[in-house]
């Protein structure tokens, strides 16, 4: 019997913790993220004979490591590589929420988009065609109301599909300017050669091009022995990209 790891990510106040409670009930505990004062809520549920370990990540508007919360969420998705990342969106504020969703889809393909507060959206006359959205985003999309425990069965089913690789999503990728795309193309194979296929090479290349040193630091912490080599080779990669 396998245990799968599921991460809940989303903007603040989108109902992540409500969903976390609906999924895990009393089987949860809280602590702190190692070395950080950010609360780490972890719980589990059983589904079709498997255990799913769920992490309720801190709510963030982006994942550029501008704050400890963003760093914790980013590092978990990029470095800890959960089996499934559930992107929790507020169905009444799709446009604002889509920003984070697209960022997460650059970091992992093992994702399910969960449109929460569908009851509120209904009251506002907002109608969402989830099939169309799923096709456009390239990942499963499920409408739920975490507070009313609606749509949870379908969510569990889609989480299982992605966890067991019955569905292998191919998320839409943001396309950047020609020049940035060219630089990504140069840098991405370097990154991949260095850190392997387990990490999102395109996303890391992008962060490096953006001058985000914190991802190098995080990778060094994680890769340990390879640290100095990582820095050197990424610097090489960067100098040929510029
Ligand atoms: N109407 C409605 N309200 C909901 C639903 N899910 C959550 N809420 C409410 O939305 C508010 C925020 O929910 P939380 O679960 O705390 O949101 P969160 O994403 O964990 O927030 P942060 O941890 O601050 O990022 C609470 O008042 C919930 O009761 C839902 O499906 N429908
Ligand atoms: Mg919360």
TrEMBL record:
Keywords: GTP-binding, Nucleotide-binding. PROSITE patterns: G_FEOB (PS51711). It comes from the Bacteria. Residues 3-165 form the FeoB-type G domain. Signal peptide: none annotated. Gene3D superfamilies: 1.10.287.1770, P-loop containing nucleotide triphosphate hydrolases (3.40.50.300). This is Iron transporter FeoB. It comes from Paenibacillus cisolokensis. The gene is feoB.
């Amino acid at each position: 019997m396998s245990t799968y790891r599921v991460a809940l990510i989303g903007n603040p106040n989108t109902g992540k913790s409500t969903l976390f409670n609906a999924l895990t009930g009393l089987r949860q505990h809280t602590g702190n993220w190692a070395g950080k004062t950010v609360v780490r809520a972890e719980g589990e549920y059983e589904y079709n004979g498997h255990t799913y370990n769920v992490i309720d990540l801190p709510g963030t508007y982006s994942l550029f490591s501008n704050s400890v919360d963003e760093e914790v969420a980013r590092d978990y998705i990029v470095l800890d590589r959960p089996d499934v990342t559930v992107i929790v969106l507020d169905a009444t504020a799709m446009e604002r929420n889509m920003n984070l969703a697209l960022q997460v889809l650059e970091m992992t393909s093992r994702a399910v988009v969960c449109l929460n507060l569908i009851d509120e959206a209904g009251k506002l006359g907002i109608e969402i065609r989830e099939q169309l959205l799923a096709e456009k985003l390239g990942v499963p999309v499920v409408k739920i109301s975490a507070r009313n425990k609606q749509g949870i069965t379908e969510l569990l089913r889609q989480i299982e599909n992605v966890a067991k690789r019955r569905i292998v999503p191919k998320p839409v990728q943001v396309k950047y300017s020609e020049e940035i795309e060219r630089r990504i193309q140069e840098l991405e194979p370097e990154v991949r050669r260095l850190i392997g296929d387990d990490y999102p090479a395109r996303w890391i290349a992008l962060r490096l091009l953006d001058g985000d040193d914190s991802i190098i630091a995080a990778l060094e912490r994680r890769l340990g022995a390879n640290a100095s080599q990582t820095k050197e080779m990424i610097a090489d990669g960067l100098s040929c990209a510029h």
